[in-house]
Amino acid sequence: MALIDSHGRTINYVRLAVTDRCNLRCTYCMPQEGIDFVSRQKLLSYEEMIRLLKIFKTLQVNKLRITGGEPLVRKGLLQFLSEISDQEIMPGFHLTTNATLTLPHIEILKDVGLKSVNISLDTLDAKRFIDITRRDQLDEVLASINGFYQNDIPVKINMVVTKGMNDEDILPMAQLAEHRNIQVRFLEEMPFNGTNETKTHFFTHHEIKEILEKGLPPLKSLPFTKGGTSQNYSVDGWKGDIGIIASYSRTFCGSCNRVRVTPTGQLKTCLYGNHVLDLRQLLRNGSSDLEIADSIKQVVAGKPMDGFEAERSRFVDITESMATIGG
Ligand code: SAM
Ligand code: SF4
């Protein structure tokens, strides 16, 4: 039976965060010293994740994204992905990665069902890369982008636009789509940086669009894809296209089709809301698959209408890192 919420949206997409750990320290995601990474016992095991994915399959969820933290830092990831493929649990998977560790594994990722990759990259400038990620790994990321591209894996590049940090990278980043069939997407920064710091102003999608419009040939709006998050634009003569994700303004919730499972097995029906179901507890307390599926159905039915409603329903202010939630 399909997962349908009380707003009539069908949920067929799960984003599974396989770890909260990361080898980078992006300023918008976590503080320099990192976050309080959870103990290994608190992370879902691969066996638990496999069981969970099978349950999601019975609920007609057919799109899987592997995220984190940085998925590639979790040991055994490739074996886990190959089991999903061998057991035909999902028709392939998508990956969100910082692409610092992927280069040696591109072919195997493709062999075990990688359908597309979203790569986080916020600048092409070596110094700013270090300022933003607090690590020196731009070359590895660029080499991975080439590697995925050459292996015909569809590539999207996600740039978080952080006011005062990388505004001037917007145009050079957009131009990555000129000669290559990739999509470069600009994300509004969200307040999930693992600290109590509250910023007063995030760069909005309007401001990002204005910069793109001023600096590039005319942008042509492409139709919005249902279930998508980005408003996409083409430029005449360009091989790829560009997109803007209003992740803080939350303009796309009406067609949301996703849920998230955090590294500790908490189900979130909205990024901005509370955890709504402790899947880890259910997986470990003897609940049957049917019972777990029923619990998922119930909480999905109550999925908030949008990220604003979800945020209003939170017990506590937003202080968590995207790596804890699973971005
Ligand atoms: N480590 C992987 C990566 O960076 O792609 C996967 C996890 S990361 C948390 C997932 C996505 O969340 C990345 O595209 C990252 O840029 C984005 N992200 C993290 N913190 C964010 C924030 N505060 N606002 C907007 N996007 C954020
Ligand atoms: Fe790591 Fe991704 Fe967070 Fe950057 S955005 S610190 S790469 S989890």
What can you tell me about this protein's structure?
It is built from eleven helices and 14 strands. The chain starts with a strand and ends with a helix. It has a single domain, classed as TIM Barrel (Alpha-Beta Barrel), CATH 3.20.20.70. The strands form two sheets. The protein has a twelve-stranded mixed β-sheet. It has a two-stranded antiparallel sheet with strand order 1-2. The chain is 29% helix and 19% strand. By secondary structure, it is an alpha/beta fold. Bound molecules: S-adenosylmethionine and iron/sulfur cluster (SF4). The site of S-adenosylmethionine has 21 residues, from strand 5, strand 7 and helix 11.
Which distinct ligands sit in these coordinates?
Answer: S-adenosylmethionine, iron/sulfur cluster
The N- to C-terminal Cα distance equals 27 Å
Largest sheet: 12 strands, mixed
Under CATH, the homologous superfamily reads Aldolase class I
**What Rg is obtained from the alpha carbons, in whole angstroms?**
19 Å
Could you tell me the number of beta strands? Answer: 14
Number of helices: 11
Indicate the structural class. alpha/beta
What would the principal axes of the Cα set say about the shape?
globular
Q: Give the low-confidence spans.
A: none
CATH fold-level topology: TIM Barrel
| Overall tally of domains | 1
